């Protein structure tokens, strides 16, 4: 029974149709958050339906460009707490997010478009020139090659070698937490990441 629940749970969070909204959800969102939120969600769903017709290379560009148009805002302002990971649904409803929120919605949107999860990673990076930390989405198009970086601070997608301003720290997805070596080989360092586990729990609860 536990095995069944585990498999069912992961089938939910990795389902190719997430995030999706029922008619009742849209009605409730409009009632609670207004028509702007509802229309933002409808526009997202229509745009993703259009992107499905494109080749993978163009889908990457379109997803990065489209979602980067959502407005940035620190978690402390939008969520009244630090380092809050919004689900794609929460982000689309509010229309504001921090760097990790862009990464999360891009991650699930690309899964929705048929990208393989083993090629996609939420990635913490160090900003070499500013000394702070940031989060981007990494896409390993080819094994043991530098990943492409989708960044909410850039409409241009470059591989990590060309992002001389960034130094990769850790790579996260449902399979675990990884480090990368100079040959761009991923080595697993942990099975879980607390914030990612919390995110999955919220998604399981249909948020």
From TrEMBL:
Top-rank taxon: Bacteria
Pfam families: Peptidase_C93
InterPro entries tied to this protein: Transglutaminase-like_Cys_pept
Protein name: Transglutaminase-like cysteine peptidase
């Amino acid at each position: 029974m536990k095995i069944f629940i585990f498999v069912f749970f992961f089938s939910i969070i990795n389902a190719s149709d997430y995030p999706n909204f029922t008619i009742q959800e849209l009605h409730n969102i409009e009632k609670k958050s207004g028509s702007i939120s509802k229309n933002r969600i409808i526009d997202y769903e229509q745009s993703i339906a259009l992107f499905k017709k494109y080749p993978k290379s163009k889908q990457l560009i379109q997803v990065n460009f489209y979602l980067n148009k959502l407005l940035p805002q620190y978690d402390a302002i939008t969520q009244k707490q630090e380092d809050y990971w919004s689900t794609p649904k929460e982000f689309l409803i509010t229309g504001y997010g921090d760097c990790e929120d862009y990464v999360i919605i891009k991650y699930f949107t690309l899964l929705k478009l048929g990208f393989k999860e083993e090629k996609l990673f939420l990635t913490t990076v160090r900003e070499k020139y500013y000394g702070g930390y940031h989060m981007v989405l990494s896409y390993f198009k080819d094994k043991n090659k530098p990943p492409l970086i989708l960044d909410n601070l850039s409409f241009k997608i470059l591989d990590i070698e060309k992002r001389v301003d960034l130094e990769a720290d850790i790579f996260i997805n449902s399979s675990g937490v990884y480090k990368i070596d100079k040959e761009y080989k991923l080595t697993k360092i942990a099975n879980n990441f607390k914030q990612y586990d919390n995110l999955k729990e919220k998604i399981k609860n249909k948020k």
